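All the exercises in this workshop are built on plain-text protein records. Sequence and backbone structure share a record, each on its own labelled line. The question running through the whole workshop is how a given chain folds. The record below serves as our worked example for the rest of this section.
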Amino acid sequence: MDQRLYDLVVPLILHSQKTLHNLHNSCKTPPNRGIYWVLINQLLRQFLKKKHFLQKREMKMELEHLIFSQGPQRVAPFSHAVRAGEYLFITGQMPTLKNDSTKLVEGGIEEQTRQVMNNLIDVLNAAGSSLEKVIFARVYLVNFHDFNRMNEVYSSFFKSDKLPGRTCIGVTGLAVGSLVEIDFVAAV
């Protein structure tokens, strides 16, 4: 349906509906709304559905695939992040050294979690966002016995009253043999 036609017809239908409603309320013996009332309401519903369809079709979200030279080297073929409207979807980061995606940081779960968070901060900063704008995190752990130690390091990066929503998932393995991987959804 053409937008101009919609803009012309809907006000007429609304006016007709209001007129019938006023007539119905002002009469001591209201006329039977009958077929006219039914038709006007059906027409209005049809036009409103078309308008909703038009608005949905016109609303296109721009996607921007971001790869940063200053970000951590990627361990596989993916973007560091994808910007969709006002949101940033950051690919899960590994505890690899910034300039060598084949080498894990030395140490256990604490050191690996710290490196993952630093890699995520690099991507957030390159995309024009920050930890304060993180909405949601997903944590992947190979060993759930590491849960508390990972949480200690993870939570040290956020203000205690501004923690993002989060899911923690146990997995059987992660890329490059890491113990932890974390991804973020953030506002831009």
